[in-house]
Amino acid sequence: MNLQPLDIGIVIGYLILTLLIGFLISKQASKNLDSYFLGGKRIPWYILGISNASGMFDITGTMWFVSILFIYGLKGAWLPWIWPIWNQVFLMVFLATWLRRSKVMTGAEWLKTRFGEDRGGRLSHLIIVVFAIVSVIGFIAYTFAGIGKFATSFFPWDLTTEIGSKVISSENMYALLIIGFTTLYVIKGGMYSVVATEIMQFLVLTISCFVVGVIAMNLVTPAQLNAVIPAGWKDLFFGWKLNLDWSNLIPSVKNKISADGYEYFSIIFMIMVFKGLLVSIAGPVPSYDLQRILSTKNPRDAARMTGFTSLVLFFPRFLMVAGITVLVLVYFSPKLNSMGSDIDFEMILPYAVSNFIPTGLLGLLLAGLIAAFMSNFAAYVNAGPAYIVNDIYKKFINPNASNKRYIRLSYLVSLLVVIIGVIFGMFIHSIDSMTKWIVASLYGGYTAANILKWVWWRFNGYGYFWGMLSGIAASLVIPLVFPDSSALNTFPLILLISSVGCVAGSLLTAPDNEEVLKEFYSSVRPWGFWEPIYQKVLAENPAFKKNRNFKRDMMNCSVGIAWQMSMVVMPIYLVIREFISMSIAFVVFAATTVFLKFYWYDRLEED
Q: Which has the higher per-residue pLDDT, 257 or 90?
């Protein structure tokens, strides 16, 4: 597709404006590491919430959401639970508060408050830094794969380049250019730059989402949609099997469902719920989500920030997802069917945007989608290097260096992390496979250790180290040993291996320092198996009150999942004009909002 000069001008103007903002506020970020990575903990919670939502609105994930809605219909609304997207609910209900009480800069530094600074504590510190870097590099590679595919569909220039004997495809060259541009303002401006540009990006994204939704509703009638979808496509709920028969419409979609292994949907759903509960209680991986929590002014703001993220993110994002999906279903199905087995479902989003958005609006939408990529990428680039600079260099190598030296090292480390992530990204051929490896295999290695750190007093730094080490190793090796098994199916095995490492590492070594445990328990106040430590804290402070909110927290989490799900399906029902179902979803949203107001939000004051 050849973009019109107006569209190109809008995109270029947007990119220049983003770069200017990043550089103009860079002085504010360069005061010290706290300012560079956390914005000095002075940014309002609602601004951080919008920033967090913008960071989650990544273009690669949106391409994946469009492909699963196309293939699985309304049942595809359950598949984001693979991440799980409702980990935000657990954060807003209790985990964000627990995390923010630590008053630290990174997840690795936070572990010091839990395991202390003896040998076990230092090992736990080291392994979470390793995990943080692995996960950030993985996510950079994931975003690299998405932006390259997307850009090639729109920009008319063939950028294929030959360096020596190595040919760099046009897809990879576009990705390199956009990533290089984004890296400039992120490295220079730090957290202030990321947040400021993400606010602007989120406004552009939201406008773009509503534009796509309106266009889809104007161009697609219910009768047109019904003619190109199989029976059951509009049904949110399911039986034992998926029962979506694409044979007479687009046979290759049936093959895709079989390749995904999702035909027995009830089994997949149970695995997703099992995994989702464990991963959510484990808390956020050490990346931008955790960084936003630690950037808030206090624990109450941390909880409000994560709740606000869900409130502003899901409706506009899935309005765009639904709009693009129905446009492709109605107007592009014949061409997709003619492709036979060569369909690249991840290219559905670019197909729709390039064919149905008018000049001017196309430039705005492209700017919005590039903004989605830049937000997500920038958030990871700003979060990852903090672990190397703050938790390795400052802690172990040069604790007395000047702030200027730390900031300059942050520039260098950010650049190196991007380069390594890009190199890995060049070898990724499927966004779907990378998505599933990150959310199932890699998260499987993270889960056990990070649940036990909250709920079991006897779990120590050695247990954390061996649990994480065995989990990371298993997440890398098991996909190679069982290449035909899906990442979701191997999650229980990786979890089991990591759990054995956690328990064995803890029980074969001495408990952590009692004073460290008492300080952690009395300040963070988690629920769980803390009775021996509780009794010691109570003996020293008879006024101390145990956290007895487990049942209330779990009730709020259950209601919160329904609340969040209603925000996912409402815009989809709106676009496909299923107004009765949309009204039911709205009633669920209203009822759960009122419930959370009284049983969650109003009780935040108690903390």
A: 90
Query: Cα–chain-centroid distance for residue 452?
Result: 22
Closest CA relative to residue 109, chosen from 283, 281, 286, 302: 286
Residue with tokens 């202030």: 192
pTM of this structure:
0.81
User: Which residues are registered as beta bridge partners of 163?
Assistant: 166
Contact 307, 48 (CB under 8 A): no
In a domain, 498, yes or no: no
* Alpha-carbon distances, residue 47 vs 14, 91, 176 (angstroms): 21, 17, 30
Q: How many CB atoms lie within 10 A of CB 455?
A: 14
In angstroms, the CA 378 to CA 367 distance is 16
Question: Strands, DSSP E only, in 310-439?
Answer: none
Helices 107-115 and 461-481 cross at an angle (nearest 10°) of: 130
CATH number for the domain including 237?
1.20.1730
Assess if residue 250 is contained within a domain: yes
Q: Over the chain, what is the mean pLDDT? A: 81
Place of tokens 């490295």: 187
Q: Confidence class of residue 35 from pLDDT cuts 50, 70 and 90? A: very low
Distances (CA, A) of 309 to 66, 85, 137, 302: 21, 11, 24, 11
Residue 132 tokens read as: 């943080």
The answer as to whether 474 is a domain residue is no
Residue type, 596: L
Which structural domain, as residue segments, surrounds residue 398? Answer: 5-429+545-606
Q: Regarding beta strands 166-168 and 161-163, do their DSSP bridges make them parallel or antiparallel, or are they unpaired?
A: antiparallel
Instruction: Evaluate whether residue 229 is within a structural domain.
Output: yes
Can you list the positions of beta strands (E) in 135-266? 161-163, 166-168
Q: How far is it, in rounded angstroms, from Cα 69 to Cα 587?
A: 23
At 255, phi and psi to the nearest 5? -65, -35
Q: Longest C-alpha distance within the chain, in Å?
A: 75
- Cβ atoms 459, 106 nearer than 8 A: no
Decide: helix, strand or coil at residue 233: coil
Q: Whose CA is closest to 348, among 371, 326, 369? A: 326
Q: Tell me, what's the pLDDT at 36?
A: 45
User: How many residues in total does the chain contain?
Assistant: 607
Residue 191: closest CA among 357, 401, 338, 26: 26
Q: Are 132 and 107 in contact (CB under 8 A)?
A: yes
Q: Are 141 and 418 in contact (CB under 8 A)?
A: no
Q: Tell me the pLDDT tens digit for each residue of 138-192.
A: 777 777 766 777 777 767 677 787 766 677 777 778 778 877 777 765 655 555 5
Domain count, the chain: 1
